[in-house]
Amino acid sequence: ISFVLIFLPYLVAQTFQTSSDYAKDGAFAVGIIYIVFCLANLALSQNITQLLGLRITFIVSSLTYLLFIAANIKYIKWVLYISAFLVGLGAALIWTAQGAYVAIATNKYEQVNNLEPSSRQGFTNGMFFGIFSCNRVLGNLLASFLFHRKYNEWIIFTVMS
């Protein structure tokens, strides 16, 4: 559920960035996010996650998403680009930690219930992504409601932050 609460406003912000008056800058920011995400996954995320531990990794990486969402309150190009870079790093960390957390939780569940090792990995990952996918629907409904009511963008992204 915490992933839904993080990614619901993040995906709304990301969609808004690529369809706003500053769509080119938003598309460039999304490019920054995914380039940094890929490079950080290859070079940094596993070591940093092991160093910080799962709890601190989740906290730190979640804050990068908050910064990106808040960057939409008032458009400033360099703030958008810096927050995109940081969320790219945060994305690498949060998804590495998520994979480790689900694997650990599944292993404990299997041990407690005397199940074959790795027999529930697919189920728990599927359950996670099923619940996680709700954020797209809920986020778009919320954003549609707020934009339809003609709220200013700064109000919408302040609420989502």
From TrEMBL:
<keyword id="KW-0812">Transmembrane</keyword>
<feature type="transmembrane region" description="Helical">
    <location>
        <begin position="126"/>
        <end position="147"/>
    </location>
</feature>
<dbReference type="InterPro" id="IPR051951">
    <property type="entry name" value="UNC-93_regulatory"/>
</dbReference>
<feature type="transmembrane region" description="Helical">
    <location>
        <begin position="50"/>
        <end position="71"/>
    </location>
</feature>
<keyword id="KW-0472">Membrane</keyword>
<dbReference type="Pfam" id="PF05978">
    <property type="entry name" value="UNC-93"/>
</dbReference>
<feature type="transmembrane region" description="Helical">
    <location>
        <begin position="78"/>
        <end position="106"/>
    </location>
</feature>
<dbReference type="GO" id="GO:0016020">
    <property type="term" value="C:membrane"/>
</dbReference>
<dbReference type="InterPro" id="IPR036259">
    <property type="entry name" value="MFS_trans_sf"/>
</dbReference>
<comment type="similarity">
    <text>Belongs to the unc-93 family.</text>
</comment>
<feature type="transmembrane region" description="Helical">
    <location>
        <begin position="26"/>
        <end position="44"/>
    </location>
</feature>
<keyword id="KW-1133">Transmembrane helix</keyword>
<dbReference type="InterPro" id="IPR010291">
    <property type="entry name" value="Ion_channel_UNC-93"/>
</dbReference>
<protein>
    <submittedName>
        <fullName>Uncharacterized protein</fullName>
    </submittedName>
</protein>
